Amino acid sequence: MKINKKLFVVAALVIATTVCAAAASSKSEPEHYKNLKVLPQNISSKDLQGIMVDDFQDALGVTCDFCHAASKDGHGLDFVSDAKPEKEITRNMMRMNLDINKKYFKLNHPLIGSPALIVTCNTCHKGAAFPEGAE
Ligand code: HEC
Ligand code: HEC
Question: CB of 87 closer than 6 A to ligand 1?
Fold first, then answer.
C-alpha cells in the first residue's frame, strides 16, 4: 500500500510537470531573444529552431557549436554571445542571401527560413562549411 501511494505521488508529479511544460510552451510565443540583428525580433521559437537546424546546421554540415560559443560556466552553449566569428560571418551571409533574393529574384520581403527563398545557404554550401572551390 505504501509503495502504491508513492507511485501515485510520482505519477501525479509527472503529469503536473507535463501539463505545466505544455502550457508554458504554448504561451511562450513569441519567444524573446536577446541578440537578433537580422532575424525578426518577434520570431517564434519554432521558426528560429527551424532556421538553426534546417537552414544552417544541415546546409553547412555542422552542429550548433560551430557558431555558438560555450557558456562561461561550462554548461552547454551561450546562444546570445557573439564570441565566435562564425556567428558574425553567418549574419553577413544571411544579409547577402536576402539581398540576392530581393534584388535578382524580385522577392518582396525575403525572410531567412522561408520556403519562398530561391537562393538559400544550401545553394552554395551543399552540406559543407567551406563551399567547394572557394579556396
Ligand atoms: C552557421 C551558424 C549557426 C549555427 C550552426 C547555429 N546558429 Fe544559432 N544563431 C546564429 C546566428 C547568426 C544567430 C543570430 C541571428 C541574428 O542576429 O538575427 C543565432 C541565434 C540563435 C539563437 C538566439 C539567441 C538570442 O537570444 O539572441 C538561438 C537560441 C540559437 N541561435 C540556437 C541555435 C541552436 C539550438 C543551434 C543548433 C541546432 C544553432 N543555433 C545553430 C548562427 C548559427
Ligand atoms: C552565393 C553563395 C553562398 C551563399 C548563398 C551562402 N554562402 Fe556562406 N560562404 C560562401 C563562400 C564562397 C564562403 C567562403 C568564404 C571565404 O572564402 O572566406 C562561405 C563561408 C561561410 C562561412 C564561414 C565558413 C568557415 O569555415 O569559416 C559560414 C559560417 C557561412 N558561409 C554560412 C552561411 C550561411 C548560414 C548561409 C545562409 C544564410 C550562407 N553561408 C550562404 C558562399 C555562400
Answer: yes
